[in-house]
Amino acid sequence: MGVHKVLISDSLHPDAIAWLKSQPGVEVNVAPKISREELLEIIGGFDALIVRGRTQVGAEEIQRGQRLRVIGRAGTGLDNINVKAAQEENVLVLNAPGANANAVAELTIGLMLSLARHLPEAFASREKLQGYGWELEGKRLGIVGLGRIGSRVAHLASAFGMQLIAHEPDPNAGPTDLLIQRVDLMALLRESEVITLHVPLIDQTRHLLGVNALHQVHKGVMIVNTARAEIVDEASLLAALDEENVSGYAADVVKDERLTRHSRVVLTPHIGAQTEEAQRRAGLEIVQRVAAALRAMPG
Question: What's the whole-model pTM score?
């Protein structure tokens, strides 16, 4: 059996790199700051490519990978990988679903609390804030998507005493040990006092919360988005904030710069998965999956 050459083109947890280097028949090249031009130049010499979110793996990168058989993403989303192009070239695409679920779910709850108690203003002020915040207990939380992250949010929110409703097309998805009312999306928008988004970015979910959806929401709803920015039509969201149909928005990433200056928007700089534990889990899971896939391939 020959040596499998693996390129790691983004930062990866040291324990994951050490594990992969310890495997027989595997040669590892770590280049976490490699440019696209450099990647295109050398990708043809590797059997596997492991990325996080920085490296964009498009059709050209895949086609240049004459030996490329596996692409691994140390995380959940695959929107930085052209999966269709990979399939056309018979390149296996793997990810680490669930590795960051708890980290993202905890941030989601933190953002809810930030909106509810006006924490950014409180941190910046030496004076008592005018007006009141509100408590999570008893509020109706609408969860859009009951995958690993949405399910973990449900458990955490339940501990705060929130009433749970959810929109999830898969009847088998989601926790079975919690009381969650399943509703369609329009009902969730009308009934929820807080909405949290946990769906992947695909054609069907792009601008899922668009102008029509945002006109259906419960007046004064607060929305938390720790998924992808494009799931929300940000121009329509700005209008809904100005009209006070939406009283607050918290997100881990945005595209429209106007949101960064809005007084009722709380933002974090894409830190959902940025915990020591999540990065270690994601790193170890993906290197183990990539190594197993390479070993299983003929030749």
Answer: 0.88
